[in-house]
Amino acid sequence: MPPKRQGPLQTVQRETDDIKRQVDSLIKDARLSDGSGRTEAYQSRCIHLQNLVEETTRKLKKLTKADEPAPVGNYEQRKMEEERRLRGFEEKLLVLVQELSPPQKREGGSSQAQEDEEEEDSEEDSEEDSEEDSEEDSEEEESEEESVEDEEEDDDEEDVVTKTMEQIPESGTATYMVISAFKGEQEGDLTIQMGEVLAILSKNEDGWWLAQDSKGSKGLVPKTYLKRYSDQEEDDEEASEDEELESKRKQSSNWDCVMRAITEIDATDVLSAMGAIPAGFRSSTLSKLLDEGITYRASHYIQPELSQSKLSFKDLFRDPDTGKVRQRTARTSLTLTLWSCKSIPTPGVGVQVLSRHIRLCAFDGTQVLSNIHTIRATCNANNVKTWSFSPRMTGNLPSLLDGDCFLRCNSDAPELGILFELGVTYIRNSTGERGDLSCGWAFLKLFDTNGAPVPHRTYELLVHGGTPYEKDVEVDPSLTRGATGTGMFQQMMLSRKLPKLFLKLKSPNVRTRSQLSALPDTLVGSLSSIHLLVLHRQLLADILLMDRATMQNADLICSPLLATFPEIMDQSDLLDALRKSWLEAESNMKRSEKRDLPLLKKKFVRVYMDNIYPLLYSADLPPPRWADEMVENQRARVIFNSSLEPFHTHTPDSPPRHQAFDISQLTYDLLCMAQ
């Protein structure tokens, strides 16, 4: 049987083990030596090992997961551990260099200076005998002060070397690394930060261990927040880790969160190590982008975009003849329907799923080009691996569950497509920690190699594991581990086990195409709310292009609807309430009134101000929180009761409660809101 081939990472691990043996041997020999005639030899060995550590570190940083001949679990975590070991060897060698360096002869220099001063004093004594005693006393005091200062400096250097050596863990010390931050809640608890190295003093059966940090503080910490620190690395690595994180934050790429998801030790790594999630699961990339601010939210993309001169608008024009927003064509303008996801692996024991969903956006292979739209999936309790969308229900279907979407994007990128990220929001039963996991991703390219649009039909997309920057990663490697044979039947059976996403691209009808042309050049959203976005766009054009005194006027505009409409774009329940109220208002309108655009806009403003605007700043409405059933039910009760009883019908004895007033609730700031 041929020998098993070693991967590049395993080769570096063996080289690191060899460096460790050489460093330990050098430190032992240097400390046991009497220092006679061997210092230069130790220094040369130390320099050789420093060069070897630098060369191995460079080799390690160039490695990628694609270089491995076979799949490697927790690849990035193992790579980081090897980097920490090499940094630890480098610190040990630096300390050893300080120990082997020859001491500076400061006492000799001070004595020589003292002799020179004494000679000068003897010459002065021959001339002025009256000042001899005073000068000698002052010179003796100065020489004593200099010698004391030299001794203090030598002591300080020895203390620095001693403290640095104390940071190197001794053999046999039980050291653990913190994998998640913990804040002490009771007296006797120890507050710890992620990446910190602790010394465990005692282990209690209840799961609370007595630990000591690098500052000498002692306290109890939960053992579930710790991981075995096997290679005895230094506590000084916390500073280097912080520097690495700061350098990552300074990068301008939109995918900094992808790199953090790959390299950081977070709850996903812990769950993977416990076997609670499949190997292809990662921290949700698109969820982290949404948490960074409004850059990837619909509330940002519905705002008008300024031209290069900042004196006009790039994507907002008004037809003077019809009074409507001038339609604009985009490179991509289509509708799609999500049907289902099949064979999606589920998290294991200890993880409770709060939400299953798909996040989609325009993507060119390197960065997100649009807002991120979220659609919540439903599943049967008997078959949790199959997700479905647009469930049948009485009344209006909530936009969060609606699988019918639209996409507009005017990017000319050749690799333009739609990125789908399948995700779950979970909570750990043991710690109560919440998080977002990516169950895989799929990508549908919208143009072929010749630049022609792909046909509108049903697509069956294979779901990949990892992140969009990782290639050839399986969601669950156990599905294909035992697969053998290359026959058609075996391939069909294997294909049925792989996770897939089913969707259909559709060409919009005449009415929908006209509505899409009135929207911003780049936007992704629910098809059920497209008529509301068109009315908002029409009001935006009227106020910004017609009602302003001049195009250079940038004063605050008194328009509560324009000031607050972007907020309901990020709160799907309020958007559904507006859709329901407007549907009721339209049902009571005559056909001629529906064709009267000025009347239609006035009624829309009235419906918004009567039913939605008071809800935004109601003290009874809790702030939204994703996948929190209690908060969602409480918000639904407030919104449902308000829809039955409008705010203007409240009696003086029971007035509605509102938040504190702010000028931003009434005024639209063009300079701050425009893109």
TrEMBL record:
Domain of life assignment: Eukaryota
GO cellular component, one term: cytoplasm
Annotated keywords: SH3 domain
Biased composition range(s): Acidic residues: 114-159, 232-245
Cited Pfam families: SH3_9 (PF14604)
Annotated ranges, domain SH3: 171-231
Stretch list, region Disordered: 61-84, 98-169, 229-250
One GO-annotated biological process of the protein: protein localization involved in establishment of planar polarity
SMART domains: SH3
Full protein name: Nephronophthisis 1
Lineage: Eukaryota, Metazoa, Chordata, Craniata, Vertebrata
